[in-house]
Amino acid sequence: MSSKKIKLDVDTDVTKVAADIATKSFDQAEAVFNKAGEVAHENVQAFDAAASAFKSRAADLQLKAMEIAQSNVNNAFAFARQAVAVQAPTDLFALNQRFVKNQMDVYSKQLAEMNELFVLLAKETAKPVQEGMTRTWGSFGKNFAA
Question: Which long-range contacts (CB under 8 A, 24 or more apart) does 118-124 make?
Fold first, then answer.
């Protein structure tokens, strides 16, 4: 009879250990699932923030493009007025050279201004997404390590 008693205790202990392992597994799975839901929500918020930053900077880019276009049109009209008043072909050639040189300088400055706005757009749009991804991967790493 004592062998049956020992067997019964072993079976009870194994069942208890299996139940504990199953409970821990379910608890861990539930925690990971809940964390994944939180991460998804945070990522949606990050993408919303990125979209908002994009809208803001896109408006700045549109305004700068309009400002540049207006400036270039004004310069072209000023050149045309001066060209009409020129009487000698050599003067027209010199005026054209000055205009082209001036416009190249203007274009260079305008491109630098646009580039600056594009860089700001990229940084501000990427920042919320980057922060969200850093939190996401950091959170998953901690959950799997536990």
Answer: 118/61, 120/57, 120/60, 121/53, 121/54, 121/57, 121/58, 121/60, 121/61, 124/53, 124/54, 124/56, 124/57
